[in-house]
Amino acid sequence: MTTELTVRVSEAAGDVAALLLRPVAARRLLVLAHGAGAGMQHAFMDGLARELAAAGVATFRYQFPYIQHNRGRPDPPAVLTATVRAAIAAAAAAAPDLPLLAGGKSLGGRMTSQALSEPARPGITDAALRVRGLVFFGFPLHAPGRPGGKRAEHLDRVAIPMLFLQGTRDTLADLTFLRPLCAKLAPRATLHIVDTADHSFHVLKRSGTTDADVLRELARTAAAWADSLA
Fold this sequence. Notes:
CATH topology: Rossmann fold
CATH class: Alpha Beta
Strand content: 15-25%
Oligomer: single chain
């Protein structure tokens, strides 16, 4: 069952919409942020939430203010990270009995990790401190055609386990940079590679799998990884 909720970000940023999808046998709750170009109801986000539910993971999806208010460009990082923290607090209140995970697609995952990279920062809530792991569905390590690792520097300050789900054709995460990054962050970082998938997790026909198969793989991998956490 999906429940429509509202998250108050701040007086200036206002409210954003959220969706809680909680299966009957949920074991964990993933606070799931959308990517830069589409909101929480994008087909990828909706399909992923349903596959996660089938794997026993509830999801709390939410909008960033720029999507909520139909603005073209993403909000400043401070607003994005404030939204992440507000969503985590709202999710914890909506399902207080479930262990928390957080993460998201592309920009949403990166902003979630930035929000949780400084636990002593003012504004970090008790709920945020309860997050047991981060899940990245396509971490945007660099701009297309400009490989590098600057966008991941803050991950050194993330103290909880991280799961990177990444395609081999992802132009925003060259694996020659991402693999050593995960090795450096080990044992906190786990990397799961999806063969022939691009940044949107579309796969080539020669892979022998479909986009629906990939969504199921992402969800089941995330659920199994979450179950392995202490």
